[in-house]
Amino acid sequence: MRVRIDPRFVPPMFITLILIVAHTTFGILEGLERTAIAIVSAIAAELALGRMTWGRWPHPASAYISGISVGILVRSPFVWPYVFASVISILTKYVLRLDNRHLWNPSNFGVSALLFLAPDTVTLLSIQWGNNIWPMAVIWMLGFVIVWRVGKLHVSAAYVVAFVVFAFVRSGLTGVPWQAALAPITGPMYQLFIFFMVTDPKVAVRSKSGQVVVAVVVAFVEMLFRLNEVIYAPFYALFLVGPAALLIERAIDRRQAPAVHPAAG
C-alpha cells in the first residue's frame, strides 16, 4: 500500500531533520524547552489570528516552520525573545500586507526585528559544520530535492552561486582568506536561510527570472553589509530586498495595465 504524505508536512519534517542533525552533531540548542516555547507561541498566534481574521482554523505547518526557525536561530538567556520573535513573525502575515499577500518572510521579519530592537540580549546561531562534511551533505541533498519539488530550486541555486561569487569578491577586497569568506554558508543557520527564507513562495515575485534576480540581489546586498561588518547580513539583506522587489513588481504591473476610461455619456 502506498503511503501519501500531505505536501504541507514535508517542509516541517525537513526543518525538524535539520534541527535533529545539527543538535546531535554539534549541540546547537541551548535547551529544547525554548525551541518548544517558540513553536507553541507561533502556532497559537497563527490559530488565533487565522480564526479571528478568516473565520477558520489555519493549517499549522507554516507556523511550525516559523516557530522552529526562531527556536533554532535565536540565542538569549531569556525566554521572552523566543515568544516575541515567534508572535511578531506570525503577526506580519496578517498586518503587513499588500494586495492580499504578506511582504516579508515571517521568521525573517521576526528575527530581524528582534536583533534590531534587542541587540544586547539576543544573538543568533553561528555554528558551522566544521570538517564534518556528511551532515551538511545530507541536509543539502534533501534540501535541494525538496525545493526542486516545490519549484524553487532555481532560487536556492541562484543564491548559493551568487554567495560563492561574492565571497571571492569580498576575499579579494578585504584580504580575508577565501575559505573564511565561504565558511558561513556551511552552517545550520544558512540551511534555514537558503531553503526556507529566500525561497518563500508567499513573498516571491511571480516570474522565475525575477526570482533569480532577487536572490542574486539579496546576496549582493548581503556582501555590502558584510563589507561594513554587519554581523547579521543575510537577514537584513532579505528584509530590505524582498519587500522592495514586490513593490517594484506592483509598480510595473500598474504601469503596464491598460488604462480604463469611463464610457462616454
Q: What is the rounded distance between the termini?
A: 67 Å
**Average pLDDT across residues?**
85
Q: How big is the Rg?
A: 19 Å
Number of helices, where a helix is a run of at least 4 consecutive DSSP H or I residues: 11
Please give the number of β-strands.
4
Largest sheet: 2 strands, antiparallel
Shape: globular
Quick gist of this model?
This protein is mainly alpha-helical. The protein is 68% helix and 3% strand.
Secondary-structure map:
Elements: H1 10-26, H2 32-54, H3 61-73, E1 74-75, H4 80-95, E2 97-98, E3 101-102, H5 106-117, E4 123-124, H6 133-149, H7 153-174, H8 178-182, H9 188-197, H10 208-227, H11 233-256
Antiparallel strand pairs: 1-4, 2-3
Protein model, in words:
The protein has helices at 10-26, 32-54, 61-73, 80-95, 106-117, 133-149, 153-174, 178-182, 188-197, 208-227, 233-256; strands at residues 74-75, 97-98, 101-102, 123-124. With 265 residues, it is mainly alpha-helical. The protein folds into 2 domains: 29-124, no CATH class; 128-253, no CATH class. A two-stranded antiparallel ribbon has the order 1-4. Helix 4 crosses helix 5.
